Amino acid sequence: MMEKHQFKAESQRLLDLMINSIYTNREIFLREIISNASDAIDKLAYTALTDDKVGIAREDFAITITRDEDLKTLTVSDNGIGMSREELEENLGTIAKSGSLGFKQAMEKQEDIDIIGQFGVGFYSAFMVASSITVITKKYGEDKAWKWVSNGADGYTIEETTKESAGTDIIMTLKEDTEDDKYSDFLQEFQIRNLIRKYSDYIRYPIKMEVTKSRKKDGSEEYESYTEAETLNSMVPIWQRAKKDVTEEEYNSFYQDKFFDFTSPLRTIHTSAEGTVSYKALLYVPGKAPYDFYTNEFKRGLQLYSSGVMIMESCEDLLPEHFCFVRGVVDSQDLSLNISREMLQKNRQLTVIARNIEKKIKSELKNMLENDREKYEEFFAAFGRQLKYGAVSEYGIHKDATQDLLLFYSHKQGKLVSLKEYVEAMPEGQEKIYFVPGENKDHLRKLPQVETLSKKGYDTLLFTEDVDEFVAQSLMTYMEKSFCNASSEDLGLQTEEEKKEAEAKAEELKGFLTFVKETLGEQVKEVKLSSNLGSHPVCMSPEAGMSFEMEKYMKRMTPEYNFSVGRILELNADHEAVQAMQKAMTEDPIKAKDYAQLLCYQAQLMAQLPLEDPYAYTELVCKLMK
Ligand code: ADP
Known about the structure:
Helices cover 38% and strands 21% of the residues. With 626 residues, it is an alpha+beta fold. It has 4 domains: 229 residues, 2-Layer Sandwich (Heat Shock Protein 90), CATH 3.30.565; 135 residues, Ribosomal Protein S5, domain 2, CATH 3.30.230.80; 88 residues, Rossmann fold (3-Layer(aba) Sandwich); 133 residues, Heat shock protein 90, C-terminal domain (Four Helix Bundle (Hemerythrin (Met), subunit A)). Helix 16 crosses helix 19 and helix 18 packs antiparallel against helix 19.
């Protein structure tokens, strides 16, 4: 029985776009259909490794193109995995799938129709040239075969049919020629040959077509024509070719096609190794993070091939977490084809390859950092956070792989710098790498400690991402310089003499400091003097080893713990406001207490800490003004 179905709404929009397309690059439809056929064969070839019943030898897998000039049909057949009825419906009835997502988003933004060529828009692109498409398919291991027919506009029909063996035929009835568009060109032998060369040469299965040839008749000078099946593609995958023979365009279009990105990669890494373990790898650093990159949905890993057979779609073990943004393929004949996926994890060769790949990626990124800064910053904007996570994860065991690649914002230079650049620019006498954590740069720039450091010609890194502080904690030192959180730790700027002087001063003002502490009670953990405050009277700093950013972070992540960081009120004894408070302590203790509370509020505001009771603050200000 034949059933009629409508396309899902988005699919319908895309179809309309395809059908009415005036896009000049329509020819890509063939690449898309062939690429699907190749994927389907990959799946059955993989099954065949462990399932004798498949009964197709590796060399017998093929894609066949058939032309019928009378019926105006172009057919692409494969002996791959085929589709069940449910799969037909799921795959060809809806388009909200990963590969087409970028396209969908672009469509929603009503971008130009030129986008078509930039996406792996897949099966639907055939409607740019076909007025109707019939799919006949039989899934491997099932008895029934199915026929799916659609002219795009009115949905599709599905009915049962017969087909001898597993696989899929895509039968495209080409549109009628018009004055401007000669769809029948796509039935021309030479045209198809060119398209295969241009777009599908690397497909690893033979793409066969009956072609017309001529030969001399036996014993005569006359020629006769005959037809013969010919393989149109060279079947050499792009990563097996010599670097010098592959153009940038080919690298890019392979990337876009395979990894569903419509932008070009920032960097292409084509590398190989011979020796204990031989392999070829073609890796790409994308220009932007995929929409699901920072979610659990994201699947990291490289495609793994062994002697031309794909054995894993995304092999996680080939790629460390901190470089998980890299996409690509690895092909090694040293891996046994019959290896199970579980065994693969413990495979020694695989570990060696993974280690080499990690080194290679690191050196390529470093090279980009040193020689193509603009590109590197673009990369860092997309994936810098991932590198930082890498430096922090597993107690910092990956820091060697990542620390040289990190960038932070330099207060002094007003731009991103690497840690190496920071250390190399340190003036004589500077011993530490100073940073301040906080939410925004403008606020951090104004911190008294930053001002103090600046006066000495010392730079401060402004840490505005949650993870930054954890990076400093996890690295501890870089080029033998230790990290110093300037907002909470001793800046180490005082000479022995100055220290002694400060101690004496603290001793002298002990009564005053105790008075302030007692006035503020639980609000602060400690009250002390500071010589780092520049022109400011007070500041609130976190207890040693902590930061308020961490407190905010922890409160967000685990609100149930009510994590809180001890507050230390630092006073600038040379400041008039502090001196006024000190004077009031003996003359008018009640006023002195109000001053202490007011300065405490101010310190909290400057540290961007919320006031528990803003009304008390306003009342206090009004009281003092009266
Ligand atoms: P994409 O290839 O980006 O997933 P397509 O629209 O080209 O999107 O195809 C949708 C799905 O239909 C494929 O993912 C695949 O599961 C299935 N499909 C398409 N062509 C074939 C084929 N020749 N054999 C088996 N399955 C196919």
